[in-house]
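Board notes, transcribed. Complex of a protein with glycine.
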Amino acid sequence: MKILVVGSGGREHCLVWKIFQSSLVDKIYCAPGNGGTFKIAENINIQADDIDSLLEFALKENIDLTVVGPEVPLVLGIVDRFEQKGLKIFGPKKDLALLEGSKIYSKEVMLKYGVPTADFETFTESDEAKQYVLRKGLPLVIKADGLAAGKGVILCDTKEEAFQAIDSIIIDKQFGDAGGKIIIEDLIEGEEVSVLIFTDGKTILPLVSSQDHKRAFDGDKGPNTGGMGAYAPAPLVNKESFNQIIKEAFKPLIEGLSQEGKVYKGILYGGLMIKNNQPYVLEYNVRFGDPETQAILPKFKSDLVRIMLDTINGDLENTAIEWDNRFCISVVLASGGYPGSYEKNKQIFGLEQIKKIKDVFVFHAGTKALSQSESEDNKIVTTGGRVLTVVSLGTNIKEAQEKVYQAIKVITFDKMFYRKDIGYRALQQVNL
Ligand code: GLY
């Protein structure tokens, strides 16, 4: 089969790496790809949101399966466009990609199907939103309705913070069209966990739980980022609570949508808060998480392409996933200054050396190869904020953590930084 992977991050490199292991696959393309994907896939110079060009390429090359990494093309309707031309593509259609594309739609659907989530109200007028803040009291969470590259959720402890958030989204249009409407919701304090499922609209096939680290600095300090590291599984979730999450956070939604004739196919990612053993859905994403995917797929022993085809064909009922039982940690190496401004084109050293370490994997994100030759001394330079994800498997959390941080020592680039404490919550939980 010929596979096209859409995207350029660590998640997409990890997907390409896992797809490359499938016996069904002859050739992989990645659009646009990065300085890691080109080693096992052919990078194609088409951006992930350029659906016309992606479609033209897939038709010309007779692509058998397209796998979409990021949310933007899904929300723009790439699945509908490809299916109209008879092409197989993994992911939900445009109407259901709205579960991530509109936070208001997502909350309304949760409410409709009885999915546990924080109480909320929606607003389009700044004054009304401020009145609500005064009536309700703080803390509150303010969210822009549309896609905002992970930056549209603002936690507010004071009235001043809340008013500023409301004005910046509704009046100053900080997130452009994404801010035409906002949600104000109650803050639920607890422990966050990510649970991803494959679903064909009938069957739910869960992946192992994971936990992301969104803040830039150790101890969960500093600004929010796209994610600085993750681990899987999350010890916070035992078998019983995992079953409860599937039963309460996913089953009513998938069944309710199907009964309306809306068949969700693809990955559905639940960002959950666990408070007093009760899961609450903070948000749904309609794609694999980044960097959760880099911590989950090294544990995944089944054929990913087979499972994606079963999802598309509505055949998940008799499908199972085989897992490596070891613990996995992913740590993001970032450019100094990220998530603010940072310098680019820094040469990365140590990539050949780290490849030799057993049970350690490196997934590229913001990197590019100065030439796409196979030569070992080919220079790889930084092009983005999140540059690499280094991943390790270990028999327990401590071993995985020690291995990943030992491995990172061989990688250097100017102004590189990373969190030194990925997995600390997991360690605390197993030591309780
Ligand atoms: N790790 C957060 C996300 O993928 O949205």
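The chain has a mean pLDDT of 95. The pocket of glycine is lined by residues 150, 212, 227, 285, 289-290, 292 (CB under 6 Å).
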